[in-house]
Amino acid sequence: MKKRIAFRKLGRTSAHKWSMLRNMVSSLIEHERIVTTLPKAKELRHVAEKMVTLAKAQDLHSRRRAAEVVRGPWNLTKLFDVLGPRYKLREGGYTRIMKLSKNRAGDNAPMAVIEYVDRPGEIRAARPPRKLQEAIEMKGLEQALKEMGIPTVDELVNEDEKKEIEKEINNSDRIDPFVVDGWIGA
Q: Which of 80, 127, 156, 159 has the highest CB neighbour number within 10 Å of its CB?
C-alpha cells in the first residue's frame, strides 16, 4: 500500500522531476500561463503556490528561499515585485488548472492549462479575495477600497485628463457609425 506519499513520480528520477518542476515554475512566473499535461500541472500547483506565499512575505529570507527554486533573476524580481503584491489579500488559491478538451496527439495524454488568477487576460475571471468581499459587504465598495489603500478613479485621473475624456465622450456622439476613415459601410 502506498501511504504517506506526498508527490507523484511522473516517471522520472527525483532529481529530474525537481529540475523539471523548477523549470516549469519559472516559465509559469514569466508567462503566467502554460500548457502542460494534467499530472504535471497538478504537481506544479504546489510549487507555484509556495513561491507566491514566499513572495507575499517580502523579506530577505523568503527571497533567498525562492531563489533556490526559481531560475533566472528576472523571474525572481517579477515574483516579488508583481505577483507578491497582487496576491497580498488572497489567502491561497493563486493558480487555476483547466483541462483542455483534446488530449495530446502523440500519446493521448490529458492536457491542461495552469495559470495565475487575477491576471490581465485570464481565461475565466476569479472571485475576489474573501477579505475584499467581506469589506465590500460591510462598508460598500468605495470605502472598502479606500481602507485597503487602493486609490479611487478621482485620485488617479487629474483634471486635464477628465476634460479630455469628457470631450471624447461628447465627440463620440457626433461620429457616424457607418463612416469609417472616409469609407461608407453598409
A: 80
